[in-house]
Amino acid sequence: MSDSPLSSTPRRQALPVGLAHVHYGVVVRPPFYVWDGEQFESARLEHVDKSEVAALPYRADVVIENNFVGVVADSLEAAYDAAARLHLRWQQPTKVSLVSPLKGIQTPTDALAPQAKGVSSAGAHREASHHYGWPGRMRWGEQPGWVVADYQQNQLNVWGQTTTPNTLKHDLKMLTGLDEDQIALFSSNTEAPLCATGLGRHCGDDAAIDAALLSQILACPVAVWLDERYARDMTALGLAQRMQLSAVVSEEGRIEEYSYRQTLAPSEVAAVGLWLSGRLKLQTSADEPTATASYAFNEPYVFRQETLTAHTGYPAGAPTNPTLLNVQQTFARESFIDEMARESGQDPLDFRLRHLEDKRGIELIESVARQVQWQTPPQQAPRGPSEMLRGRGVAYAQLPDREQRQKSGVRSAWIADIEVNRITGGVRITRLVVGQDAGEYVDTARLQQTLQERVLGEARPLLGHTPAFDQWSDEPNGTVDKKEQERTSLSRLTSPAIEPTRNDQLATTEPASPLKEVDFAPGVAVIANALFDATGVRFRQPPFTANRVRQALQEQVAGDETLSPSPATRRLRRRWFAAAALTTIAGSAAMAWPWKGAIAPVSRPAPTLYSAETIERGRLVAAAGDCAACHTAEGGVENVGGRAFETPFGTLYSTNITPDEATGIGQWSYAAFERAMRHGISRDGSHLYPAFPYTAFAKTSDADLQALYAYLMAQPAVSADTPANALSFPYNLRALMAGWNALYHDPTPFQPDPEQSELYNRGAYLAGGLGHCSACHTPRNAMGAEQSGERYFAGAMVDGWEAPPLNTLSRAPIPWSEHSLYDYLRHGESPLHGVASGPMAPVVAGLGELPEYDVRAIAHYVAAQMGAPAGNSEAELAEAQQRISRTMTSPPGMEQGEQLFAGACASCHVDSGLPSFNRAATSLALNTNLHSERPDNVIQSILGGVHAEHVVGIGAMPGFADSFSNTQVATLAAYLRARFAPDAPSWQQLEQRVAELRQPHHNNTYSTP
């Protein structure tokens, strides 16, 4: 779990009241661990080297129990640091199951593949068999937060997040050996009390087990930070339940034989810490599934012959969650019934009625159908060029009462209408009609929140998807400022129109069981069926996140065992593959062809077309890409263009990217937008210049490009013509860029490195793509293309400023560390390096809009290129103090420079012991610019000043362009170099360089091209 130190460490969040001397724990998961559906496998810990941990200047306890490894220290930062210094040797298991990172399935590749057994020899019956799955963890958690365990005197108190408190308490009982009355669970969030939702576990339970195990062994309260890193547990645990359903359908369209088999009698998989520690006690049983008379199967339909079985081999005493089992069974059964109806050409609602004999159930379904005006067959929206797909689904459940009496139980019929955004993959429930024949009215607020959040995505949808290099997370700390709260409020989901209905006349005189016993049973199935109706893709495993839906719609899931395309989709896929083969052959020639066709204009998409979550994601993408910095002229309106960029080939002007239809991108379709971002081709077919860094933006994922397009189209349209470029011949011939692209441009999207951590890949994606760091920090060849290999991040000159090397060539007097890089990028200031200014000022301001995890990821990636450690050593800190001490006096023979410094600089840059409102936090002795081979950044700072509005508490340094002559600026620069970088050679021809940089188009240029 500690792939990368401090990947989302909280800075401040309240711990439970009354706990003293809390320690902080980090767990280190094996390189391989997996639940394959019937057993747990993991790498085996062979050897542990704690020598580096023992040598640390602070205490860190290492806890090892079988294959469970944890580190506990007095701060979370120290725990991460100590965990990174552990040297562990693991032995891979001899039997390794296949892992699908998208779905979290750890089974042989054909175990969940849809099967069609074909038609019998007589031709009178049709046989079919399909598999369905339920994830071991629905998501990694509700939101980032503390999970705390306090084991004292045979009493365990746990504060955290869980939706399955009874199951968690059972796991804690197995872990600690305590009785249930000795275990108390509390919510770490008073606004979200512990409650069962009936839709499965999340990784808050795994974090609770980790904290409890560490607390029990060390006999002290231990806090564990729950965030996206726990999504690795979600992936490893794969499917908790697998269900195979088979049927024989007669020529008349009725199911004659029906079989339901599920792999586990319990409904959930135990916490990872239980497996790794070896504290989980297994019972021995036959490997073959056996019919279980005592097992509750709730089957409302009547078939001539049916077989219901469940495998019983699982940990002894494992609890069964009847609510979750009902949801799982209903999801599989109702999805299967829906498939049988559609495969036999029957209306799904009528097909259900044909197999019901229960009068109450029949009348309930018919009443709900009348309310929604169900059509036979159901009316489906045409799947044309529209970006919105619409579908309708139906599901039914009949559950027994408290005494397991099926006849007297509650019936529940659901019909849902949904909208699917084919670009983003977002799914929204537009109408949900819930019919119940007895009991209380449906809690519509709970249904809305639970289904939309748990089945289609999170309440904060930037969280909780399957971790990927293009996933956007929220701030991991608990203290969020007002601006952040306003920002995240945009990501709340739109409330659907939910209409309850009830047939009171069908109720009997028997007391009906409360509604909570039938919570959400048909909810997952009704969405799955509506999704199939809308998209033609059968999703056989929840949750139905935007990622999965989008990938299915883009036909990027060929061979995916859990997605079964419709026959029409399969035919389209075959045609697509044939076209792709021809495209590949012609690809090279097309790349070099200088004339590209125009893409037809479209009407500006309605701002309401995209969800608030998509627009919010697009805003973050725009911030990461620093769009406004380049597309906003000095003092102009944001994104209307007109900013000038001086290049060796002439002057370029940024364009208007507001959705104005005449002068902006309002008539650009997404296809035109994507082509510009990936290939550098404008909508009219003309080539763009790489001053617009499409060479980096090409690495952006489809999801982020789609979100960026949605965000830009939702902004105000501003009419503003772009000034004409002033490029010299032949660079003013755009067609020549075709050859340049063929030589130097790779439009392939970013591909994560499987050998690197998620944090590294996230940082590589942001820094190399949206952040286009190399555009400034990598030198270019004579044709203006970025150099590669050892020259990557080797530093470059941009618009009169030096972008220093971000690799091992860095000339920082004190080496950068990952922590220093994070402080600099996140807060605009590093105590050992100074304040971000010049072209980095707007970059840091843009990064301030991003989630903390993303900035840490960029810092982690850059640190890897520099070979930088996690933090600076004591020796480096001591060296910094020595450098500062050596610069307390002026060098001899530089009286003029000393006078200029004393009059203009010393009040802020020298600690005289007197109070100052504008004291520079970092000594000039540690400033990288003064140790550079080039004086440009120092000269630029003297002429234009240092504007650090992005750094709270730091005053701005005024510019001296109007008060200092060229000679005075050169004299001051020479003095600063001699005093604060005495071990570096003197700069030459300073006055000449000052004259060059004083030109108006260089002064006060604070943007990155």
SSE arrangement:
Elements (H helix, E strand, L loop, with lengths): L22 E6 L4 E3 L4 E3 L1 E6 L1 H4 L5 E6 L2 E6 L2 H9 L2 E5 L23 E5 L5 E11 L9 E8 L2 E6 L4 H12 L6 E5 L16 H15 L3 E5 L4 H7 L1 E12 L4 E8 L9 H6 L27 E6 L11 H22 L4 H7 L4 H14 L15 E11 L12 E11 L5 E10 L7 H12 L26 H8 L7 E6 L20 H13 L1 E3 L6 H8 L9 E3 L1 H26 L19 H14 L1 H4 L13 E4 L2 E4 L16 H10 L14 H4 L4 H12 L12 E2 L9 H8 L13 H13 L3 H4 L18 E3 L2 E3 L14 H10 L1 E2 L3 E2 L4 H8 L4 H15 L7 H13 L8 H10 L1 H4 L26 H9 L21 H15 L9 H8 L12
Parallel strand pairs: 1-13, 11-12, 15-16, 19-20
Antiparallel strand pairs: 1-6, 2-3, 4-7, 5-6, 8-9, 9-14, 10-11, 10-13, 14-15, 17-18, 18-19, 21-22, 23-24, 24-25, 26-27, 28-29
Give the class from helix and strand content and strand pairing. alpha+beta
Mean pLDDT: 77
Strand order of the largest sheet: 5-6-1-13-10-11-12
Terminal residue distance:
38 Å
Sheet bearing the most strands, described? Answer: 7 strands, mixed
Low-confidence residue ranges: 2-12, 97-123, 283-294, 381-385, 458-467, 474-518, 556-563, 567-592, 913-917, 1001-1009
Question: What is the overall silhouette?
Answer: globular
Number of helices: 31
**Could you tell me the radius of gyration in angstroms?**
32 Å
Count of DSSP strands: 29
Helix content: 25-40%
Number of self-contained structural domains: 4
- How much beta, percentage-wise? 15-25%
